[in-house]
């Protein structure tokens, strides 16, 4: 088996495309100092740009369902009502199913950015740092959410807001309170932190991942891929896609695989992924999720299409990040973790408030509500994060996992 993955193989490029590549990724560094085919500056811009854009994509994913329909967008188009709105919103949701794989790969890539001779010292040091950058803010945010949500519950226990929680209030068991804050055996009250928790657990098992990369890299990838496709949680993860794609990012970094993708290949993969996302949204016309065999086929196909999304999205993201507008957006990369932490339950509150202003519950206004809910949530989250970073930098650093605004990568 070759050491270079298929998506890293350069195809023949036209002179015009080569000029675009050279202009976008030009650097004064010698070729020997490139990392995985890109300069450190280009990688830094790409990571910052990708982080903030992917978290915004996650806000779209967590919109979940239109207020006037019980069916979640994760099920696809509603074939009985509001087909246009549910199809388009579900397609967007499935497009952003590439978010978790890409963020996990970036995390694995960064975690394993060390020389092999320094491996064990670096791993030990980074495991400790991940406690500060991941688990400590997880606890701080969820403690804050528990206090605020419980106070609201005491004031208005009949509010429809509480139907969005995975916990039933008041807490009937002490373990519910512990899980709501620490996420031990159940996702915390801020459910989006399942990803942060799984990243932290993946960092804790990084010594085993390093041994696999060192002595059996492809076997390790195969085992984790099988876990991912079988939804095997290995008793410690909420979702197995996090360790699998984390491992792929680590493998790419340690093997120094070329992550540059020819423009025509990236565009082809991205367009193909959009088509696949649309087809997945239309799946209710063909698949009956109540039949186990059909559900299993659909689930595996949904997982595999994310690989196409990873290649296509990355191939476009790192190029856009080198452009002036991309660099400007990438400057907000330091707010990505804060936006991830703050966007829920803020999104629920925004959705409930904006729905009261919708003049008619038709497809057009449903889509307007969908876009505005995400836009307002992102605007409030970024504005609040920037305000705290400027006015109370120590508090912002705590809630942002030690990350500072404008921090390099």
Helix fraction bin: 55-70%
Q: Main β-sheet: number of strands, strand sense, barrel status?
A: none
Q: pLDDT under 50 segments (min length 5)?
A: 1-32
Structural class: mainly alpha
Mean pLDDT: 89
The 3D shape can be described as globular
Can you characterise this structure?
With 409 residues, this protein is mainly alpha-helical. The chain has a domain of 72 residues. Helices cover 65% and strands 0% of the residues. The protein is globular.
Summarize, please.
The chain is an all-alpha fold and about 400 residues long. It is built from 16 helices and no strands.
What are its keywords?
mainly alpha; single chain
Write the layout of secondary structure elements.
Blueprint: H1 15-25, H2 40-61, H3 83-95, H4 99-111, H5 119-155, H6 174-182, H7 194-204, H8 206-215, H9 217-230, H10 241-255, H11 263-281, H12 292-320, H13 324-330, H14 336-355, H15 363-391, H16 393-399
């Amino acid at each position: 088996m070759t050491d270079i993955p298929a998506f890293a193989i350069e195809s023949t490029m036209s002179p015009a495309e080569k000029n675009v590549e050279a202009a976008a990724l030009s650097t004064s560094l010698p070729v020997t100092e490139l990392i995985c085919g890109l300069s450190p500056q280009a990688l830094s811009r790409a990571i910052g740009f990708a982080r903030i854009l992917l978290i915004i994509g996650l806000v779209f994913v967590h919109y979940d369902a239109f207020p006037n329909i019980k069916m979640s967008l994760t099920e696809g188009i509603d074939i009985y009502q509001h087909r246009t709105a549910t199809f388009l919103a579900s397609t967007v949701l499935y497009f952003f199913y590439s978010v978790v794989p890409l963020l996990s790969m970036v995390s694995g890539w960064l975690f394993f950015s060390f020389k092999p001779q320094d491996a064990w010292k670096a791993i030990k040091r980074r495991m400790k740092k991940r406690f500060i950058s991941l688990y400590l803010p997880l606890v701080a945010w969820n403690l804050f959410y528990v206090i605020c949500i419980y106070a609201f519950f005491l004031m208005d226990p009949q509010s429809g807001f509480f139907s969005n929680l995975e916990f039933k209030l008041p807490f009937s068991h002490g373990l519910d309170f512990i899980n709501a804050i620490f996420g031990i055996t159940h996702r915390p009250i801020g459910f989006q932190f399942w990803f942060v928790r799984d990243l932290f657990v993946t960092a804790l098992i990084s010594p085993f991942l390093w041994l696999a990369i060192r002595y059996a890299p492809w076997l390790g990838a195969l085992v984790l891929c099988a876990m991912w496709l079988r939804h095997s949680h290995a008793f410690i993860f909420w979702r197995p896609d996090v360790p699998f794609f984390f491992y792929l990012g680590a493998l790419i970094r340690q093997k120094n695989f070329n992550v540059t993708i020819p423009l025509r290949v990236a565009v082809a993969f991205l367009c193909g992924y959009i088509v696949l996302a649309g087809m997945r949204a239309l799946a209710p016309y063909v698949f009956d999720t109540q039949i186990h065999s059909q559900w299993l086929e659909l689930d595996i196909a949904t997982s595999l299409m994310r690989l196409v999304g990873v290649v296509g999205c990355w191939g476009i993201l790192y190029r856009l990040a080198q452009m002036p507008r991309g660099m400007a957006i990438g400057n907000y990369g330091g707010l990505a973790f804060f936006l991830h932490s703050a966007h829920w339950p803020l999104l629920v509150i925004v959705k409930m408030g904006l729905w009261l202003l919708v003049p008619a519950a038709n497809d057009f206004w449903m889509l307007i509500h969908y876009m505005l809910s995400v836009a307002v949530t992102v605007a409030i989250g970024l504005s609040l994060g920037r305000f705290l970073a400027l006015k109370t930098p120590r508090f912002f650093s705590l809630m942002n996992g030690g990350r500072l605004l404008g921090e390099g990568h």
